[in-house]
Amino acid sequence: MVALEKVPNRAMKTYERELHGTYRHRAAGDTLGLWSRYPLREVEKLDLGGAWPHAVRAVARTPVGDTAVYAVRLPSVRVTFDQGFAVAQRDASAARLRERIARDPTRRLLLLGDLNGALRDRGLAPLTTVLRPADGRAGHGLGFTWPAAFPVVRLDHVLVRGFASTGTDVLPDLGSDHRPVLTGLRADR
């Protein structure tokens, strides 16, 4: 699976063309893209509040069975003159996403995305009560992803249900403002 967030509309066709050889199945919504080696069905944009849909959900028919996959970009955290550290919109979107995931009937689930916060951030706690971070037991190093030129925080995460990580790495700066995360998974027994 490949999930991309904040893809400019003008670049979406380029990603489709470049990824199609290996990842023939795709779901997209606004600036989100999800590509898969496995057939996708039940594709839907999820409105998590805010100015645009912040997630795309699809069910992939994988060798280990149906897997719900969410490509997500939660609203950004902003520092404003009148509100200070403004997290309310991101936190509300995280809570709405948690409700949706809690109702998701699939046994296995992947959440891939820019959550605009570290997992220790209390605003993301609703998600970590229903999903496990894939990097919790695998990988090494600090794993920071933002800003790409000199990362100081991890905003980009892989959260799972029904999977265990076989390894996770943060890749080098590839030209985005975030560094990509690469995670290997195996199905839980």
Could you explain how this protein is built, in words?
The chain has 189 residues and is α+β, with helices and mostly antiparallel strands. The protein has one domain: Deoxyribonuclease I, Chain A. The protein is globular and about 50 Å long. It has a six-stranded mixed sheet with strand order 4-5-6-9-11-10, with no helix packed on it. The longest helix is centred in the middle third of the chain and has 16 residues, at 88-103. The protein has helices at 9-19, 88-103, 125-128; strands spanning 2-4, 25-29, 32-36, 40-46, 55-62, 65-73, 78-80, 84-86, 108-114, 132-133, 156-161, 163-170, 181-187. Helices cover 16% and strands 39% of the residues.
Task: Record the SSE blueprint.
Elements: E1 2-4, H1 9-19, E2 25-29, E3 32-36, E4 40-46, E5 55-62, E6 65-73, E7 78-80, E8 84-86, H2 88-103, E9 108-114, H3 125-128, E10 132-133, E11 156-161, E12 163-170, E13 181-187
Parallel strand pairs: 6-9
Antiparallel strand pairs: 1-3, 2-3, 4-5, 5-6, 7-8, 9-11, 10-11, 12-13
